[in-house]
Amino acid sequence: MHLRPRPVALALVTLSILGVSSCSSAKKAAASSDCGGTFKGVAVANLTDLSKDPGVSSSCSQTPTTLEVKDLVTGTGTAATPTSTVTVQYSGVRYQDGFAFDASWKGGAPIAFPLTGVVPGFTQGIGGAPGVAPMKVGGRRIMILPADLGYGAQGGGADIPPNTPIVFVVDLVKVQ
């Protein structure tokens, strides 16, 4: 699983969410452009069926600078916190070319782990942060992580080069 911990110094990189970035390279007036995808250049084949792999693809040439989230299904259960242990199903792809680097769906079963032990954007995208509501059990959310909230300058092994923005589509199954 690629959701391994990062060094503390890198994990403390910006905790503030400064606003919504756009993947459009046009002027600010065109900031609502989504690069032709479902959300900011990310397409999801199974938007609302949490019993199916979401089927994530992405191909946006721009580089996001802030955490972007969108609920595809709004959960109604327990809300996660940044220190929760969560059980999730997820798919992870590189933002700019859609390469699938990891997915719990491959193993067929949800995975449980503490949000304190993963990349900051994953913690903030599920547990909440300024401008980002915590995810609730029963929800499915797209999270676009800029490189500094993902694996940063060191990258995430062979599948995630340095300074690569990444995307997760996450189904929150349980909060412990």
UniProtKB/TrEMBL annotation:
Enzyme class: isomerase
GO MF, one example: peptidyl-prolyl cis-trans isomerase activity
Keyword Signal: yes
Alphabetical list of InterPro entries matching this protein: PPIase_dom_sf, PPIase_FKBP_dom
KW Thylakoid (keyword) present: no
Transmembrane segments: none
Signal peptide: 1-26
Keywords: Isomerase, Rotamase, Signal
Catalysis performed (reactions): [protein]-peptidylproline (omega=180) = [protein]-peptidylproline (omega=0)
EC number from the UniProt entry: 5.2.1.8
PPIase FKBP-type domain ranges (all copies): 83-176
Record family assignment: Belongs to the FKBP-type PPIase family.
UniProt-recorded name of the protein: Peptidyl-prolyl cis-trans isomerase
